[in-house]
Specification:
Blueprint lengths: L1 H9 L12 H4 L1 H13 L3 E5 L8 E7 L2 E7 L5 E5 L14 E2 L4 E2 L6 E2 L5 E3 L23 E7 L2 E5 L7 H4 L1 H6 L8 E2 L5 E6 L3 H9 L4 H4 L1 H4 L7 E6 L3 E6 L27 E6 L3 E5 L3 E9 L5 E9 L6 H28 L16 H21 L1
Antiparallel strand pairs: 1-10, 2-3, 2-5, 3-4, 4-9, 6-7, 7-8, 9-10, 11-18, 12-18, 13-14, 14-15, 15-16, 16-17, 17-18
Length: 382
Amino acid sequence: MEKIAILNRVCLPVEDANGLPNEHYTCPSVFKEEKDILLFNKWSGLAVAAEIPSVGNAVPINFQGTPLFIVRTKENRVKVFQNTCRHRGMILIEQTKTIKGAIRCPYHSWCYSTDGHLISTPHVGGPGRNLHGSIDRSNLGLTEIRSHVWMGVIWINLSGTAPNFEDSMKDLINRWADFDKPLFHGGGESSFTIEVAANWKLAVENYCESYHLPWVHPGLNTYSRLEDHYHIEHKNIFSGQGTKVYKQLEDNEGNSFPDFPNLTDKWDTAAEYIAVYPNVLLGVHRDHAFAIILIPDGPEKTYEHVHLFYSCKNTSKQLRRKNMKLWKNVFEEDVPVVQGMQRGRHAVKFDGGRFSPVMDSPTHCFHYWVASEIQNGRTQKD
């Protein structure tokens, strides 16, 4: 009953609410509970489609203890499968590779097509007999994980119970309809990873709000000031911030990235930064976009995989490097405060904190979502 009462306080209006209690940042058992309810039951970010650019490319990924792999099929579709053979559960793909023929299990050589069909079972009926009446290949294909590609991100629903992606994200897709067009990953000059000694939710919370800009990002705040920002809130799906002032990056000759085509006038000066629950942070601008996929490694460590996208393939390598350096500096400025909040969650009398009703409402929106989803999950379990 005490835990229910604490989470009820999180769900109060922002002016009265407390933040999530310490155990949601430090406790292994609560981390597991959140993994099941928040990460497995929803549409979570796994990787970016740019990691498998060519037909046959396959990449193994361990997502919260579950072995998966992403593959670009012969039909040029991105798919996600459980990385286990249907025979004895052997791991199929140990490292990034390009599949020329079939996906072959290294244990007993059962083979699968890139779209997951079981196509070969050598000696399954005895030496020289590759068929057996009890082995129905049509029912023993690879276990496919529901997936969808949007904004360059591969989203997955491990439980298989979430509504269709287009239904779950309808309001955000409509909000950013101007960016419903090809995005081109900037390659080696456009991806990096930051390791943070903190719970993944603190990275989301920090990203949601602009309140910290004057002190944590003084350089950014010189041209995109606190007063230039506005809140973005959509209960139970996403929250974040926008700015009415966006300054395009230029190279030494004064050139900037090409704009995305056919944008509305809003994007001449605006940019938006939205946390899509649970673990993807997205940003859009007139000339580039980015995605940060948060991959938790236990309750107190998170990997932030950052990817930058552009409107066309042939953008300036020099400018891409400059842009990556700029964003890397910005995101690294957040690390000390996110890690400081994590250390603060070990203070036994910290009560989750309070919110500024004016400045913290996007962050409270996320806390509300976490608390209400956990409550619902516990109720269903009981």
